[in-house]
Amino acid sequence: MGCSSSVSSSQPVHRTNNIQSSYDTRGTIVVYGMIQSPATQRILATLIEKGLKFQLKVINLKAGENLSRSYLEKQPFGTIPALDDVDGFTIYESRAISRYLEMKYKDKGTELIPKGNIKVEGLFEQAASIELSYFDSYANGIVTERIFKKMRGGEPDMNKVAELRRDLAKNLDVYDQILSTQSYLAGNMFTLADLFHLPLGSLLLKCGEGELFESRSHVKQWWNKISTRQAWKTVQAMA
Amino acid sequence: MPIKVYGTPTSTCTQRVLTTLIEKGLPYELIKVNLAAGEQKTQEYLDEKQPFGVVPVLIDEDGFKIYESRAICRYLELKYKGKGTELMPTNDVKALGLFEQAASIEMSYYDPMKGLGDPDEAKIALYREQLNAKLDVYEKILSKQPYLAGQDFTLADLFHLSYGNRLVKLNEGHFFESRPHVKDWWNRITSRPSWQQVLALA
């Protein structure tokens, strides 16, 4: 954790010192973040699904690199990730980055947002909003207590976890209903709406909350399908 | 069959959808869901309208059903692209990217602030601190451009209206007033006729 590295999705890992300001990154997609960060993993998964080469410049949160003046110029909220496209265009917010990559590199790799049919696009937006409304903050809350707090030397508030788990469980009951009539959240195609669940979903499993998925047969099936995608396996192997 | 919205005029999420419909110049029928009586939690509502048991839901002219307020607004913009105000940039991938960034900012840093009505004093103090830090960044962004996604008003700005209004109603408008560019932006977006009409319904 904390070492500088640059990673290309189809080449052997080579190291780059990320404080060398003279390093010319024009012509390469650059990701600013940390491999262990769920939000960074979201965009790594997208990049790999699209078959896009990129470099990872580590922004070490522990060392406060996210609060350096140069990073704040890229991402004024001081959170990770941020991304520079090949022409130097900068964008932040992991879901926005993923959507942008899909729009820009539409014809490369996996199609991640359905196009051409307004109803299908509407249902994609509904599914993308479902992830934000009913999954993200509960999963993030549980994982913050059970993993991130511990990493910082704190103790998880298990009452809070129980409350969050209860609410997430209710929402996943609805997921189970939805997924009983279609393979993915937006319909019958894998989309960003499913992908966005991968980082926190995987962390839920890691901290022993797997029962949330395992006990719901359609959610379990869906989770198995999306978490065994090659792109996600590649991201997990990087961390 | 006109567009039907199931919700209430005082629900922050319903207000988002109504504002968008008015911006697009689309006639609609608002069918009130009795939240106080728990209508949204009845089996009938869950089965037929919204399985998570919340409002709003929109049923389009052709019977197409969609829920989640931000998804509904995006869908309306896509479907009725040429009508009324343009609420998302078209064609320019960078402009669209910056729109998505602004829309995500609203979800990441602003929406969580809806907890300000919480009775727990310690929680409120924390919310204030966080909201101040985040609005300081909004101030920076809005010092360089009039709207969150760039030069034009978009859904990313519109999505802020209903919770921002709630802040003001809780006498917390100073969060906006104390920051000159945020204040200007807030005044600009709240004085739009569409929002004024929605407020009149509430």
From TrEMBL, chain A:
Residues 117-239 form the GST C-terminal domain. It comes from Rotaria sordida. It is an enzyme of class 2 (transferase). PANTHER family: GLUTATHIONE S-TRANSFERASE RHO. InterPro entries: Glutathione-S-Trfase_C-like (IPR010987), Glutathione-S-Trfase_C_sf (IPR036282), Glutathione_S-Trfase (IPR040079), Glutathione_S-Trfase_N (IPR004045), GST_C (IPR004046), Thioredoxin-like_sf (IPR036249). Keywords: Transferase. Residues 27-109 form the GST N-terminal domain. SUPFAM superfamilies: GST C-terminal domain-like, Thioredoxin-like. Its EC number is 2.5.1.18. One of its GO terms (cellular component) is cytoplasm. This is glutathione transferase. GO terms for biological process: glutathione metabolic process; response to toxic substance. Belongs to the GST superfamily. Phi family. It catalyses: RX + glutathione = an S-substituted glutathione + a halide anion + H(+). GO terms for molecular function: glutathione binding; glutathione transferase activity.
Automatic annotation (TrEMBL), chain B:
Residues 1-84 form the GST N-terminal domain. Keywords: Transferase. Its EC number is 2.5.1.18. One of its GO terms (molecular function) is glutathione transferase activity. Pfam families: GST_C (PF00043), GST_N_2 (PF13409). Signal peptide: none annotated. GO terms for cellular component: cytoplasm. It is an enzyme of class 2 (transferase). One of its GO terms (biological process) is glutathione metabolic process. Residues 92-202 form the GST C-terminal domain. It catalyses: RX + glutathione = an S-substituted glutathione + a halide anion + H(+). The keyword Methyltransferase does not apply. The keyword Transport does not apply. InterPro entries: Glutathione-S-Trfase_C-like (IPR010987), Glutathione-S-Trfase_C_sf (IPR036282), Glutathione_S-Trfase (IPR040079), Glutathione_S-Trfase_N (IPR004045), GST_C (IPR004046), Thioredoxin-like_sf (IPR036249). This is glutathione transferase.
